[in-house]
Here is the input.
Amino acid sequence: MSIAIRAARTGDLPGVYRVLDAAFDGPVQLFVDQTEGDSTLRWRQVRIAEDRGRVLAHVRIFARTMMLRGVPVRAGGIGSVAAHPDARGMGLPSALLMDAADVMHRSNMPIGFLFTGIPAFYERLGWRIVRQPGFSVDGREVAQLPRDRSCGVRPIDDTDVPALLALHRRTIAGTTGAVRRTARTWRDARAWLPENIAGCLVAEHSGRIVAYVRVRTRDHGFQVLDAAYAHGFAAAMTTLLAESARRTRVRGVSGPAPVPSEHAIANAYRTLPSTRESMDTTYPMMMRIVSLEALLASLLPGLSDRANKHRGAPFRLGLLAPDGDTATLDVRPASARITRARPDFALDESATLGALLGQRRASDLVRPRPPLAIRRCIDALLPETLLHFWNADRI
Here is the structure.
């Protein structure tokens, strides 16, 4: 064989769909809708491995914006990773994923993310699981949740989108892991998720939209795709959840489906007898640093602001990316900057991602163990933070 890895072209789509149809159990129409209904598609971000014109493997990069510690960062969502059965064992998905990392690097996407049922495969390529709780619940119990009678409930209308996007933006401010929606991605996603219109609702108070929920249904239940509520209106969110479950008339809730841990829906689920909460979701989110320097540059203003509280001795903290790239944070009283100097303390590749995302206490990951004053400063620079993403963030 003479394998070539390159960007796909329009004429490659029939071959791409044959690969996806052969590799996945679901209907190939899902991939057709996801590809042809996504106006953000750029051919340079559709990567294929082919032999003399025959498509053997495929990887798609979805250009998105993800919030990291409240900072919008360009991110590459990886999806539709597949090889034709005839080409299995040749390492083509691995080669395409490494090629995709190069493409993301050139496209100024310093972070990548994906959702998968085979995390061990991706871990070998530098991807790491980012955990968030998932919930399985009995839909009949959800439909009986208490309702806030001060809010009116109605179906989402296309004219609501600007208000819903504004509410979404306010909700994800300061978060990590949320994919920032736009009018374009909101519209496109409706073509392939697919939403159950009966369960996509808004709550209004005094003529103002204060909450919304979007769901999709499966034979065995429904999933909350996305939900947001204004400050002080958590009860409106519970009202929408109950009404959505009632209107879709589905007994179970597919799960464990991810819900932000601090969200009103998570709190509502936790009150129900049937609820099962787990950090081991079937399709966990995974992330990978693509460009350490670019990622640090995006986060540096926030790091510098937090360094203002540091009044102790200066120190240098080393960071490591999966591709072996290194960088050093030079932390001094009231400042932080990126250098290539030799660090005093260091984080390994997995710890670097965990610390930057705030998934673990950063001072526990540093080697050698720093003095107490420096440990406190490291935790102030890189505080722990909750993840915030939804099913609709699955690219």
In short: The chain has a mean pLDDT of 92.
